[in-house]
Design goal:
Structural class: alpha/beta
CATH class: Alpha Beta
Radius of gyration: 16 Å
Shape: globular
Strand order of the largest sheet: 3-2-1-4-5-7-6
Length: about 190
């Protein structure tokens, strides 16, 4: 990785976490791409990348290299997300860096998780907004009885924990601001 791209993943400290967990993805889908800098980053970070699909409510205007395709969709439009993923996937890596709103991100996960290959990874970025009272669905942390703090994205991450016991999430790495859901390999 020799170049700096227009993405907040540098200052957020996310890149080392990606490097540690994601090894040789060939197909990547990212929801919430703003100007597309992260799409360029993924191609630079992993030489194995063949195709990167970006989805944003407002696609970037800049031209992208041929291995990158940016499509317009709202992250809560589950039918459109499924259509896009069905025609361009499956994916080794899917990243949700869109609204950072709990219910919207849960809908995105439910629509796109089936398109993650076994052994692939689904990443939720910036889930800590659930602890921010200034965020649309966040709230300041308070020590409350079980199930505890469930505002916004924090509640969404706690739902991912349920997927370990009741779905095909094999492992969930929860870090400050990032959650990596690893899809279980077939038995």
């Amino acid at each position: 990785m020799n170049r700096q791209f227009d993405t907040d993943k540098y200052e957020s400290g996310y890149i080392p976490q990606y490097i540690e967990r994601v090894k040789t993805p060939r197909r990547i889908l990212e929801v919430g791409v703003r100007h597309g800098g992260s799409l360029l980053l993924w191609c630079d970070l992993w030489p194995s990348v063949e195709k990167v699909i970006g989805i944003d409510i407002n696609p970037p205007l800049e031209a992208m290299p041929s291995q990158i395709q940016v499509l317009q969709a709202d992250q809560t439009d589950v039918a459109k997300l499924d259509d896009i993923a069905s025609s361009t996937g499956p994916f080794d890596l899917i990243i949700d860096d869109a609204s950072h709103l709990g219910e919207a991100s849960w809908k995105t996960f439910r629509a796109l998780w089936p398109h993650v290959v076994p052994g692939g990874i689904y990443v939720v970025e910036d889930w800590g907004t659930g602890y921010w009272s200034r965020w649309a669905d966040g709230a300041d942390y308070r020590d409350v009885p079980a199930p505890g703090h469930t505002a916004g994205m924090v509640g969404m991450i706690k739902r991912l924990v349920d997927e370990i016991g009741n779905g095909d999430v094999g492992r969930l790495d929860i870090l400050r601001g990032l959650a990596f859901a690893h899809k279980r390999l077939p038995d």
